[in-house]
Amino acid sequence: MKSSLNGQSILLLGVDGLFVLAGALSGTFLNVYLWKTKPDFAMIGWFTFSQQLFLGLTFWIAGKWVKEHNKMNALRVGTALTGLFYLIVLWAGKDTVHFIWPLGLLLGAALGLFWLAFNVVYFEVTDSSNRDLFNGWTGLIGSATGIVGPWLSGWIISTMHGERGYRFIFTVSLVIYGIGVVLSFFLKKREVSGVYSWSEPLKQIRNKGNPWRQAVPGLAFQGIREGVFAFLINLLVYIATTNEMKLGQFSLITSLVALISYWAAGKWFKKRNRSLGMIAGSICLLLVILPLLWKVNYGTLLFLGIGTSIFVPLYTIPMVSSVFDLMGTSEHSVDLRVELVVLRELSLMVGRIVGILIFIGVLSIHESQTTITWLMIVLGATPIFNWIVMRRLLGHETKAA
């Protein structure tokens, strides 16, 4: 089977690119905006917790809509609700910190609808022969938008001196989400089949010998690191520099490096190298954190960011591709693709919530930079445990149904 992308998969990459670009413009500075109003790690943690909680629940609840009705509408509603989130932030201004939970739930629901529909359509427009290529392009586009978006946002916020700049960036993101909704109408309506099984995720875990019994804990370990690092790194860069332009510069440099590494991984990464690539990437992702033990400043954080950008494709591409390959091993698993996408996200959600609760719990006992650094090292070691539970799946040859 030829390893190439068709028109629908390219269009899906375009919709994803717009969604990620809007998030790169505003999402990078959203937590900084909250921090400047109220410098409180626990508040940022609970905001992220509420997002992840409702993101996972939305995956499970909306699974019925996506499987039995029009999944493209779920993707459009998710994009529109994300725009609505930023509209409310624009309206609330600095009072946003008083609405952490409802806003977190809204953003979680929006992201849940979008990524559930996206992941199901992604599975349908790719197969095991071109999935690594698609994932490489996804990372490439994410890195490219990460180069332009945060740097531009940081420059605009610094030039417009704070609040005015933030409001301008949030408005631009709102417009981009609108364009994404329009572009999504060019994606073909996907066929629906079968009845949604609410209990399928639990059934998969209960079945002895089921490969998902390895994938689920692996995904949870992946989520533990993601849940905290997704918001903490950018926040630490801002705290260390108190300069939005520096944070934009940080994102530009790390995203440029990630663009090159994802391009290389997408071009040369092969299925047979998944296990070796993942363990090498996991170890290196831990090693690049260690300089923070000596000093936490822009230089050591940039070293962490560049190192992460270089090695993260080795870790994430095998993980994503192997899990999605499990959805195509038989006609039965293909029929259950929506439920299996839900199972994947619920597993990640559990891990992210565990990581965030550990972060909040530890800092509630003792909050210091040393504590945060050691916490990052402990959570940063979870990719190694991920590889341990996933290594058999990574080397397993799957045949597409």
Automatic annotation (TrEMBL):
Keywords: Membrane, Transmembrane, Transmembrane helix. InterPro entries: MFS, MFS_trans_sf, Sugar_transport-like. It comes from the Bacteria. The chain crosses the membrane at residues 12-35, 41-62, 74-93, 99-122, 134-156, 168-187, 223-241, 247-264, 276-294, 300-326, 346-365, 371-389. The keyword Membrane applies. It is a multi-pass membrane protein. The keyword ATP-binding does not apply. It is found in: Cell membrane. It holds the Pfam family MFS_1. This is YQGE family putative transporter. The lineage of its organism: Bacteria, Bacillati, Bacillota, Bacilli, Bacillales.
